[in-house]
Amino acid sequence: MTSITPLEPLGPSRELLPTEPGFFTHWQQLLTFNRDHKIVGLQYMLSSFVFFLIGGLLAMLIRAELLTPELNVVTRQFYNTLFTMHGSIMIFLWTIPFLVGMTNFLLPLMIGARDVTFPTLNALSFWVFFTGAILMLVSFFTPSGAADSGWWSYPPLSVQSGFGNLFSGESIWLLSVLLGGIASIMGAVNFVSTIVWMRAPGMTLFRMPIFVWAALTAQTMQLIFLPVLTADLILLYFDLNFGTPFFNVADGGDPVLYQHFFWFYSHPVVYVWILPVFGVFSEIIPAFTRNPLFGYRTVALATASFAVITGFVWVHHMFAGDTPGWMRLLFMATTGLVAIPSGIKIFAWTATIWKSKLHLDTAMLFAVGGVVMFLLAGITGVMLSAVPVDLHVNNTHFVVGHFHYVVNNTIVMGLYAAIYFWFPKVTGRLMAEGWGKVHFAFMFIGSTLTFFPMHILGLQGMVRRISSYQPDLQEWNVVSSLGAFLLGVSVLPFIVNAIVSWKHGVVAGNNPWQATGLEWTLPSPVPKETFEATPTVLQPPYNYGDPNVVLFDPSDPY
Ligand code: HEM
Ligand SMILES: [Cu+2]
Predict the structure, then answer these.
(1) Residue 208's pLDDT band (boundaries 50, 70, 90)?
(2) pLDDT one-digit tens code per residue, 504-524
(3) Rounded Cα gap, residues 287 and 544, in angstroms
(4) Are 483 and 448 within 8 A, CB to CB?
(5) pLDDT digit string (tens) for 530-556?
(6) Is residue 12 a part of any domain in this protein?
(7) For 78-94, what is each residue's pLDDT tens digit?
(8) What is the distance in A from the centroid of ligand 1 to the CA of 87?
(9) Which domain holds residue 99?
(10) What domain count does the chain have?
C-alpha cells in the first residue's frame, strides 16, 4: 500500500491569472533555434499542421480526379505525383512530426521533468526536419516535378525517374526523407533518455501514464528500426545518382532487398504513430468517465509488446511478390499476433466506459470515434493478414480503405482528441464545444463516406494508383469523393475554433477536466520554468473515483 498524504494547495504565485501572458504569446520564439521543449513541441505541431493542410489539398485533387471514370482534372503523370506526394507529406511531414511535437510538449510535463535530456539536440532536430520538409515541397517546382513513384519509392521504377540528376524530384524526395529520419532519430534519443533518466521521484514504471509508456515504446522502435530505412534510402540514393548496383538487377543487385529493408521500418512506423494515439485514448477515456483505466498494467505491457511483435511482421506487405510459401505462412501467423495486444486495449477502453457516467465533450467524442474506427480498421487488417485474401485484393482500393481507417480515421481522429484535450495546457483557454461538435460530426460522417466505399470498390476490382477506371465503378467513387470534400470542409470549423479560442476562449484554469496527470497540476498555459519544485508521485495514474486519494505532492522541494 502506498501512503496517502494531504494535498498542499498551490501557492498564490502559481495561480494562473486570466491576464497573465503565457510564453507562447511571444510567437517570434517559434522562428528561433529555441531549446525549450515546449517551443520545440509547438514548432513541430504548428508546422506539421500546415503540411497536413497541403497533403489534404492534394487528397482533394485526387478525389476530384476520381469523381469521374475519365481522366479530366490532371494528367496521368501528375496523378502519379499527386498520390506519391500526398502519401509522403501525410506520413513524413504530418503524422510523424506532429507526434514528435506532442511528445515534446507533454512528455516532460507528464513525468515531472524540467525539459528533455538534450535540449540543444532537440532544437536541432526540429530545424533538420523543417529543412527536409521545405525541400520536399520545393521539389514540386523542379523542371521534372516532384517524386512520382509512390511513397515506397521501389526500385527499379524510382531509379528510372530522374536517373543521374541530383536535382530530380526523386533525388530531392530521398534527401528530404533522410533528413526527416535523422531528425526523428535525434528526437528518439532525447525521448528515451528523458523517460529513463528524468522521471520525478516516485514515478516508477508502473506509475507512468499510458501515454508515456506509448512514447517509450514508440521511440525505442524508432531507434531500432529507423536506421535500417536510413541505410536503405542512402543505398537507393547512390543507385539513383551515381549508378551503383545495390538494387539494380542488371548489375547483380536485388530490388527485393530494398523492399525488405523498407518494410522492416515502414511497418513498425505505423505503431510509432498509433501507440501514442492509443496513449491519448487511454488518458482521455478515464478522464471523461471518471473511472480508472481498466487493466492499467496489462495495457502498459500490451503497449510495450508491440515493440517486439512489430519487428516480425513486415513481410505481410510483400505477400504478393514472389515471396516463398513458408515465408508467407510464417508472416501470416506473426501478423495475427498483433490482434492480441490491440484487442486487449479495445477491451480495456470498453470496460472503462462500461456503466460509467459518460461526459461527451469534444475530446471524448473524438476519442470514442477513433476507437470505433480502429475496430473497423482492425477487422479489415485481420482479413488482409490472411494470404489468400491479400492476394485477391492486393493493390486495390480495399487496401487504401483499410489503411485510411488507420491513418486518417483512427490516428487523425486521435490527434484531434489530443488537441481538444490539451489545448488549455498550451494556451490557457478551452476550445469552444459547439464548434468542436460540428467539427466532429463533419469529420466522422466525412471519413466514413470517403473510406468505407473504398472497400467495396476494391472488392469490385478498382486498382489503386490509377487515374481513370471502368464506368460501372463510378457510383461509389462519387460517394467517396463527396465524403472527401466534406472531410476537407470539416477542417474549417476546427481552424476557426482554434484561432478564436486561443485569443478569446473560456479561461481554463489548471485542470479543466479534473484529470489526474502531473501536467494538470501546472498552471495553464504552462509557465516557462514549468515545475517550480520537482513533484513527488504518490500513486499510480488514473485514480479517479476516490476524492481522498492524492496522486501528487506538487510542493516537495528538490
Ligand atoms: C484527408 C483525407 C484523405 C483523403 C480524401 C485521402 C485520399 C487518398 C486516396 C484516394 C488515395 C489513393 C490514391 C490512389 O491510389 O490512386 C490515397 C493514398 C494514400 N494516402 Fe490518403 N487520404 C486522406 C488522408 C490521409 C492521411 C491522413 C494519411 C496518412 C497519415 C494518408 C496516407 C496515404 C498514403 C500513404 C497513400 C498511398 C500513397 C501511395 O500509393 O504511394 N492519407 N489517399
Ligand atoms: Cu504492416
Answers:
(1) very high
(2) 899 998 999 989 999 999 988
(3) 8
(4) yes
(5) 888 889 998 889 988 776 777 777 655
(6) no
(7) 999 999 999 999 999 99
(8) 5
(9) 28-553
(10) 1
Using the predicted structure, report yes or no on whether residue 218 has a pLDDT greater than 70. yes
Pocket lining: 91 vs ligand 1, CB cutoff 6 Å: yes
CB atoms inside a 10 Å sphere around CB 534:
17
Kindly give the distance from the C-alpha atom of residue 317 to the centroid of ligand 2, in angstroms, as a whole number: 6
Cα–Cα distance list, 443 to 366, 411, 418, 423 (Å)? 9, 13, 15, 19
Q: How far apart are CA 374 and CA 295, in angstroms?
A: 20
95 in contact with ligand 1, CB cutoff 6 A:
yes
pLDDT tier for residue 13 given thresholds of 50, 70 and 90: very low
Count other Cβ atoms within 10 Å, centred on residue 413.
27
Q: Which three cell numbers stand for residue 407?
A: 491513418
Q: What predicted TM-score, i.e. pTM, was given to this entire model?
A: 0.93
Which cell numbers in the block locate residue 250? Answer: 542488371
Question: How far away, in angstroms, is 275 Cα from ligand 2 center?
Answer: 14
Residue 18 resides in a domain = no
For cell 538494387, the residue is 247
Q: Give the residue from 106, 114, 304, 271 showing the smallest Cα distance to 197.
A: 114
Take residue 485 and report the three cell numbers written for it: 470534400
Q: What is the pLDDT of residue 160?
A: 87
CATH number of the domain residue 433 falls in: 1.20.210.10
Residue with cell 528533455: 116
Q: Check: CB of residue 109 under 8 Å from CB of residue 523.
A: no
Angstrom distance (rounded) from CA 362 to CA 313: 35
Q: Is the pLDDT of residue 42 over 50?
A: yes
Domain assignment of residue 9, yes or no: no
Residue pLDDT, tens place only, 344-383 = 999 999 999 998 888 899 999 999 999 999 999 999 999 9
Say how many Å lie between the first and final Cα of the chain, rounded. Answer: 24
Is residue 477 assigned to a domain?
Answer: yes
- 467 Cα nearest atom in ligand 1: 16
